[in-house]
UniProtKB/TrEMBL annotation:
InterPro entries: MFS (IPR011701), MFS_dom (IPR020846), MFS_trans_sf (IPR036259). It is a multi-pass membrane protein. This is MFS transporter. It comes from Nocardioides bigeumensis. Its main location: membrane. The chain crosses the membrane at residues 12-33, 53-75, 82-101, 113-135, 147-167, 173-191, 230-249, 261-282, 289-310, 316-339, 351-374, 394-411.
């Protein structure tokens, strides 16, 4: 029997819950990005070189990616509210420890704890959207979540830099951690797992989890979703978090102020392109993965045009490259919308965990490979890199685009065949512009 509905879907309560959870995600993005402007101060505080400084970012991404599947399992087992509270608690503790850390090992441990808390937030917010809003609202709100979350990165830029110089390291990061305490109260009071009497949490026995994960992974729709998330966002992540700034300054001859301005403009473009993609995904559910491929193709063309030049590209070409690359962020959100179509609600946490691994795995591999190529070409370090070095190193992105698009096309075919076999009429509904949501029955489905 279906669960008894206690609250309206897509009405005022849903928006209050979403805004509360969204605030947690904005804070998570802020914590994740906070080291960007504090790098030089961190190197001085902990007496570390550039390699160990970079380890902070790599560690956070590794912890985040490595925890996605376990977090998905926990999300399905214990519900959204508990995961948000746990994630908030870990982020608050990690940032507070980072504020008072006086040596490199303790600082690394603090960032690891922060990354573990961060890993629990985004998939929890996505799950809330899926159960609290109408089907036609979900694509738009999912896109809006990803874009508004980037406000955290903006706050982690200039405002945090000002605070660090005026208040100092310890006071700044201690104040940042206190925001988590306020949100803990908000989540505890306002967030509910589901509008139904049954929260949707699946009380699986631990020994059954391995089998359930095999079922989720065996669904070709899950793999289509993961490869969509793998292929679309890594170029933006690599550009904004690590290699974009030195490419612009050392390779293209831009000033640091010009490079910083472009990176901030990319964030604004993410919001605009995300709204457009959200509308398209809602109108064209059958072509969602094709939309991802289209965005990736535009990125590849823009990068090819810039990297093919042996001289610095004109400003307009770099701006087009940056905005096209930024569109990959919203395109990656399509992966979560795809997962919702192929996964019953009680297993969507596991599916989203698998999906979320894709983009971060691609980002880590690309960041590392670009660095390896740069070191092989120019052992002299950052100060010695020139345009030709970046042209060769950043070309490695093509390897991951080719792999990703190949897998998207492969699993799109398999996923459509799966829907045709298991849910007759689903494809025709999507072709007509009507969204299909998994009915929540027969989750084994012979896969």
């Amino acid at each position: 029997m279906p669960s008894r509905q206690l609250h309206d879907i897509g009405r005022r309560r849903a928006w209050v819950i979403w805004l509360t959870a969204l605030s947690v995600y904005v804070l998570a993005v802020f914590h994740r990005s906070s080291l960007g402007v504090a790098g030089l101060l961190a190197a001085e505080r902990f007496h570390i070189d550039a390699t160990r400084l970079a380890f902070f970012t790599v560690l956070q991404l590794l912890v985040y990616a490595g925890m996605q599947i376990p977090v998905g399992v926990l999300l399905d087992r214990y519900g959204t509210k508990r995961l948000l509270l746990t994630g908030l608690g870990l982020m608050t503790a990690g940032q507070l420890a980072f504020a008072f850390a006086g040596n490199f090992p303790l600082a690394v441990l603090a960032r690891g704890v922060l990354g573990a808390g961060d890993a629990m937030v985004f998939v929890s917010v996505i799950r809330l959207i899926g159960v609290w809003f109408l089907v036609r609202q979900v694509p738009f709100i999912t896109q809006l979540t990803g874009q508004v979350g980037q406000l955290g990165a903006i706050v982690a830029a200039a405002p945090l830099s000002i605070a660090l110089h005026q208040l100092g390291w310890t006071r700044t990061f201690a104040i940042a951690s206190s925001c988590g305490v306020l949100l803990l109260v908000g989540v505890a009071l306002l967030v509910k797992d589901s509008p139904y009497a049954d929260s949707g949490a699946e009380r699986l026995k631990l020994r059954a989890l391995a089998g359930s994960l095999r079922t989720v992974w065996g669904n070709p729709g899950t793999r289509l979703s993961m490869w969509s998330h793998f292929t679309a966002p890594f170029s933006m992540t690599v550009f904004t978090m690590l290699w974009g700034f030195p490419f612009l300054v050392r390779g293209q001859g831009w000033t640091p102020d010009q490079a910083s301005t472009l990176l901030m403009a990319m964030t604004a473009w993410v919001v605009v392109s995300g709204l457009v993609l959200g509308w398209l995904v809602g109108r064209l559910p059958y072509y969602r993965s094709i939309l991802v491929i289209g965005v990736v193709a535009c990125m590849a063309v823009a990068w090819a045009a810039v990297l093919a030049r042996s001289t610095p590209a004109p400003t307009w070409m770099i701006v087009v490259l940056a905005f096209t690359t930024a569109t990959g962020g919203p395109a990656s959100m399509v992966g979560f919308d795809l997962a919702r179509s192929f996964t019953p609600v009680e297993a969507v946490g596991r599916a989203n965990g698998v999906v979320n691994v894709g983009g971060f795995l691609a980002s880590l591999l690309t960041m590392a490979l670009v660095g390896v190529v740069l070191d092989l070409r120019e052992p002299g370090g950052m100060a010695a890199y020139d345009l030709d070095d970046f042209r060769v190193a950043l070309s490695v992105q093509a390897l991951f685009w080719v792999l990703g698009v190949t897998q998207i096309l492969r699993y799109r075919r398999k996923a459509l065949a799966h829907l045709r076999r298991v849910h007759p009429g689903a494809i025709e509904s999507m072709r007509a512009g009507q969204p299909f949501v998994h009915p929540g029955i027969g989750d084994r489905e012979g896969v």
